[in-house]
Structure formats: C-alpha cells, structure tokens
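FIELD: query
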Amino acid sequence: MRALTRAAAIAAASFLFGVLGFGLHMAAPTAMLADAHGMIGSIAGLIGLLLALVLGLVIWTSHGVYTTQVTESLSLGPIVMQLDHAFEQLGPKGLEGRKLLQGQVRSHRERFWGEDRRRRGAISYAVSRADTRDMAECLARIAPADDGERRLVATTQSLSASMIQTQLLMARQLATPLPPILLAVVVGWSFLLFFAYGLSSAANPISLVMAALGAVAVASALLLIFELMDPYDGLFHIPPAGIDHVLAAIGVRSDAKA
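FIELD: result
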C-alpha cells in the first residue's frame, strides 16, 4: 500500500507538471514558442532518452535485489536442515542445539515476515551477533567423545556461521537496495519531461488524456521498482511457506527425538 501511494503521488505530480507546461504554452507568445520549438523538442528527446535508460537500469537493479532475496531465502532451507541433522547425529548432546536452531529460525521468520520486518535493518547486526554468541556457547558445552562427534561439532560450527551470515546479508541488502538520490533523479527527469511535453503541445482533451496515461505509465514502472525492492511485503512478496515448512520439519523431528 505504501508503494502504491508513492506511485500515485508521482503520477499526479507528473501530470501536474504536464498541465503547467500546457499553461505556459497558452501564456507564451506564439512567435516565441515557434522559435523555441526545436530546442524544446531536442531537450524533451534528451530527457526522454536519459529517463528510459536509467529507468530500465533501476528496474533491472531492483529485480536483481528481488531475485537475490529469493535465492538466499531458498538457500537457507538446506543449510538449516543439514544443521538440524548434524545436531541430531550428536544424540542427546545435540538436543539443546536443535532447540536453539529452531528459535533462531523463528526469529528469522519474524524479522522478514513478521512485525519486526520494518526494523530488520536496524537490528540485523545485533541479532546476528547474539545468534553467533548463543550458538558458540551451545557448541562449547558439547563434549565430543570421539573423532566422529568432533567432526559433527565442526560441521555445525560451519553451517551455523553460513546460516547467520546469509541472514545478515539478506537484511543488510534490503536496508539500502538503491541510493535514494537515484530514484529522486529519475522522478525529477519524469517531471521535466512532462513539462516539456506540455510546453510543446496545445491543451485539449486528447492532450490531457495522453498526459494522464503517460503519467500512469511512468508511475507503474516506479511502482514495479518499489515492489521489487520490498520482496517480503507487497504485490510480489516472497511467501513464508518455505521457512514454515522448515520450521515444521525441524520442530516435529526435535519433538520426536525428545
């Protein structure tokens, strides 16, 4: 909803700049407009080219953010399952680790799909540090009886570090997916473009309708960018079904083992 509101505001502002261009076209002397017609068209073409190129680049970048989040979210499942299996192989010694793992996965779900998602960037380092400390303390309490158990402990250390690192990277990437100034420049170019189009055209119902449709088209592209940059909330959100299935699997297995 927030992305839709921002896109609607940009569409309205773009149309308003087009109307301002129409107004200046009506107020300016005809001879002056005729003399400046070539310059207006050239600048409008330049701005249109810049807007098309950079807007396409921004859409591609935001799509990259989305696909990276999907890939990393999917990669967590196998890591968690391998980590749970390694703790299971340790028998009673690994029960505490399995319960801790389940709690950390629940915390991850809350940060990305729950109430904590709006502040995940601010708490990402603190949560990752706490998870690293808790897992290290848990593993330190395990006393391996043979080389096999020592290898399992080493495996859990490696997998746990990989899981926490992936979670941290996912959160930090979403904190600053695109520089705000880049989006501001793109929006500013769209305003200038609509102003130039209005300045070079006479105001009539057809011109107004086309200006409105153009504003909606630009806003829809920006809506796509906003939605792709927020992959856990919105039209293109990544569903939590995958992590819910992982939680159910390790939860059932932990309960059964206990």
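FIELD: remark
Residues 7 and 219 are 5 Å apart (CA to CA).
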